[in-house]
Amino acid sequence: MGKLTKGQRIGILTAGGDCPGINAAIRGVGKTAIVKYGMSVVGISDGFTGMINKEYRELTEQDLSGILTVGGTILGTSREKPFKSSGKGKNEIKKPVLIKEHYEQLGLDCLVCIGGNGTIKTAHLLAQEGLNVIGIPKTIDNDVWGTDQSFGFDSAVNIAVEAIDRLHSTANSHKRIMIIELMGHNAGWIALYSGIAGGGDVILIPEIEYDDTKVAEYLVHRVNDNKPYSIVVVAEGIKNPVKDSCSAAQALSKRINELTGLETRETVLGYIQRGGTPSPMDRVLATRYGSAAADLIAERNFGKMVALKNTEIISVPLSDVAGKVKLVDPKDPLVIQAHKMGTNFGF
Ligand code: F6P
């Protein structure tokens, strides 16, 4: 570790879809920065939009109290991508230029960007423009490359498993096939973990190609085996069998009913997975990430994303992470284990 710098001024922003644990991360960075390093902290409003419009507020240690358990983000968020062209040609206002100007005007020594893949990519591009940047991985999808886990994921899995647990009893009473669709964008992490923890009979994820006739055969086989109800857990990113505007769960529900004659019902859990208070594990992870980010700033070790590797918090270069996505390996030990126990993955 090099010489630690005290009294720096840092900005914190939260960008992309919100998730439980963001406030715990803001608190982790801010409290460590203020209490341990005597830094001053600026909260940027609504992700990169706040940097473009210079919308911010000073954050004191008092402002950071009482937010650990609160869902969402006290700073607000947006899906603004400042490096994406607006298509206005030479009349375009160069957003990265505005961000640089405002970074200078606010007297920042570093900008902490809390976000998912899109945010980390933008953070890397800003670092290339000469800004001191640190990334913190957050997303319920758990698809940020370079870290074993992003915070938000554990809370989302907890919420999804509670929903699946509740589906079991109603499915059993009515002897129905219950299809539950979970979030995850193009990744199947939430569906895989929730499916296993919730005892899903079928788990369909984007990373593993499925055949709906195989799923149907399996469900009929279960009925013939005296298992009159089944739970089918699907990730939102799976191939939609009818390619219309309905959800993958609705389409699959219809298709399974046609193929098997069994009664089907679908549930799309949606934004419930992103709302509310973070799980204890996410509070701990977000706090560890936040504190480690402040340590990196004190060391002036910029251009990094904090990450979890086994049980340790490490840092990885933003350049290694930017532009990559962490998907489920179809040969992931969890997939293999569940398959060995009879869980159907659609093949
Ligand atoms: O990235 C998190 C996520 O919740 C995905 O799981 C989902 O596909 C997407 O965001 C929804 O995005 P929006 O908030 O823009 O509707």
Could you explain how this protein is built, in words?
- It is built from 11 helices and 11 strands.
- It has 347 residues and is an alpha/beta fold.
- The termini are far apart.
- The protein has helices at residues 22-36, 48-53, 95-105, 117-128, 153-174, 189-197, 212-224, 248-260, 280-298, 318-321, 333-340, and strands at residues 9-14, 40-44, 56-59, 110-115, 133-137, 177-182, 202-204, 230-235, 264-268, 304-309, 312-317.
- Helix 5 packs across helix 6.
- Strand 7 (202-204), helix 7 and strand 8 (230-235) form a beta-alpha-beta unit.
- It has 2 domains: 9-152 and 278-321, Rossmann fold, CATH 3.40.50; 153-274, Phosphofructokinase domain (Rossmann fold, 3-Layer(aba) Sandwich).
- The strands form 2 sheets. A 7-stranded mixed beta sheet has the order 3-2-1-4-5-10-11, sandwiched between helices. Strands 7-8-6-9 form a 4-stranded parallel beta sheet, sandwiched between helices.
- Bound molecules: 6-O-phosphono-beta-D-fructofuranose.
- 6-O-phosphono-beta-D-fructofuranose binds at residues 17, 79, 116, 139-141, 183-185, 236, 274.
